[in-house]
Specification:
Number of domains: 1
Strand content: under 5%
Radius of gyration: 19 Å
Distance between the termini: 51 Å
Number of strands: 0
Length: 90
């Protein structure tokens, strides 16, 4: 590892191990799926930009709001979103 790479590795606030390699994957994670009803497919195909933007914005707002709630997690979270489409043939 280069000196530059070593100097920019994120460190735990308590002075623990860097968040790289195996330590990174030992953090609690969750896989959450937001699904649109199949009958909306024709609408989405006609308005992809608007509806995908809406889906990403609302799913992000939902994750942040639920995570901030002390009854759930009571924390700020980080996440990334991926659009996965699936064509099912009847």
């Amino acid at each position: 590892m280069t000196a530059i790479a070593r100097s920019v590795r994120p460190q735990l606030g308590n002075g623990g191990s860097p968040l790289v390699g195996e330590n990174f994957y030992r953090r609690p994670t969750a896989h959450i799926v937001f699904t649109l009803p199949r009958h909306l497919a024709p609408l989405v195909l006609q308005n992809k930009k608007v509806l995908y933007d809406l889906l990403f914005r609302i799913s992000a707002e939902t994750l942040l709001e639920v995570a901030r709630n002390p009854r759930h997690l009571g924390a700020e979270i980080g996440f990334f979103s991926v659009l996965h489409t699936c064509l099912l043939r009847a």
